[in-house]
Amino acid sequence: MAAQDISTYCPEWSDDERMSVMFSPMRHKELNPESWNSKMLFWSSLISQWCLTNNKCSVTVEILEKAFQRDGKSPHCLQEVLSECIRTGQVVDHGRFVGSIAPKDTWGGWVRSGGWGAVQMMGDKVVGHNPSSLVLPTVAVKLIDQLHTKLKSLKPLMKLKHFQYLDEESLQDFQDSESQGLLEFLSAKKLIVCKTIENTKIFKVSLDNSIVAFDETDDGIIKLHQTLGTLDKDIESFENEVKDLGAKVKQLLKSNSRQSAKSFLQRQKIVEKNLEKKLNQKLNTESILDEILGAESNKKVVDSYKAGLDALKATLHDKSLEDVDDLMDEIGDTLVKGEDLATTLSKNVLDDSVETIDLEQELNDLSREESDLDVSKELINVAVSKEDQELMDMLEQLEVDIQPQIKPAENKILVAS
Length: 417
Known about the structure:
Blueprint: H1 3-6, H2 16-23, H3 33-53, E1 58-59, H4 61-67, H5 78-88, E2 92-93, H6 94-101, H7 107-112, H8 116-126, E3 134-135, H9 137-153, E4 158-159, E5 163-167, H10 177-188, E6 192-197, E7 200-206, H11 216-254, H12 258-315, H13 321-350, H14 356-381, H15 386-397
Antiparallel strand pairs: 1-3, 2-3, 4-5, 5-7, 6-7
């Protein structure tokens, strides 16, 4: 970093005489404790500020020597400064910091959380010390929170109340070494977890600082989402094919190739049936996914019932057993009615008999309105040409026997429990 940049937050950096003293090697503390403390405070504060300014929380002696070059010279005291910062816990090595931020659900986790300074002194004797990769905890915590906030603001594949899913493409802006290091720390805190599902990397990100992990339910949700993506592509392909085949039939009729037109029309009808199947599969998949995503709120309702029932039992401790049994039966009946109501509502939404006739009638009405509008325009502009009318007559007279030779395989959807 250039000297003028550091001088924006360190005015002393431009003072040659002052910096000559700061760049010199550290003397023994006993010789001049006040000067020693002043110099140590200067460098520890400057290192922290430099890390914040450059969004870095991990450093090495080499990185700092290069960053703080002045007139081609590097400070001669950085090794001693970092050693003192390690001793006081202002700087910790990478491994110990990862251990300190991991969830404290075990005795080992509790030991690792005994304070950065205490861990340094105890850990050096137990597991050794590697000062080559160092982390500034106060800076790291701030940068971790900033990255977590950015991840939560990204557009997700799917979003639930406590977490959201991201794909690998969403994290393309976080491929630099600093971001990768922060992602490692977020992973250590179990605020983000990654898993490859169907050859695709999926990230699960906590939205409320609760611990996240992948389980079978996550696998099922992601696979259903991926299935929807595949169905969307298939549907688009079939729709385009139907359109192309329709245009081909019209073209062949214009050239009086009735037999070829009939063959293409037969193919068009087969593709239309396949398109209808894909649309039904998509509706079923969406319904299953909605049920899974809605299970979270259903669980809360059940938990509320349980809490209310526990409270009811507590208030009725002095009642007779017969009274309690009656009340329990009444509550059970009420729950059954509520379940029946929910089932009925769900059937009304998803039932195949969803008034198909009414929907068809509405579509016909809309088509009729469009036709009336088109006729009005044609009357204003120009009548239908004789050639088009003859083409329509030929289509109506065309007989098509649709008997597909290949029966499409049934598409089964597996949902993880």
